[in-house]
Amino acid sequence: MVQTIAISKNISTLAQLREKFNLVPTKSTQFFTEWFQDLPELTDEEKATLDKLKSRFLRHRDRGELAEGTVNLLLISPLLELAGFYDEPFFISTEP
User: Fold this and answer.
1) In terms of Cα–Cα distance, which of 27, 77, 19, 84 is closest to 53?
2) Is residue 57 part of a domain?
3) The total number of structural domains that make up the chain
4) Which of 30, 35, 86, 94 is deepest in the core (most CB within 10 A)?
5) What tens digit of pLDDT does each residue of 37-93 get?
6) CA distances from 35 to 22, 30, 31, 48, 58 (A)
7) Which residues span the domain enclosing 89?
């Protein structure tokens, strides 16, 4: 009889997952091409900001699980700012 163990009991971080299964992130532009087609060009400043946010997120994520609030602080809020969603005509509201 094969014994099964929940993956969360053996692997709790992406770093462990990469090590155990010899996975490597891809930077191939052929991966999910729909993410790159028919989009406006980003400025150098926008690219630098996105690279910084990605690096910051990956560094925190590799240490383990991230709570929703942490993801909001690391990614969502800076992305909303970068996209201009805190400015007119938009308003931010929270759950009651």
Assistant:
1) 77
2) yes
3) 1
4) 86
5) 888 888 999 999 999 999 999 999 999 889 999 999 999 999 999 999 999 999 888
6) 26, 10, 9, 18, 19
7) 43-96
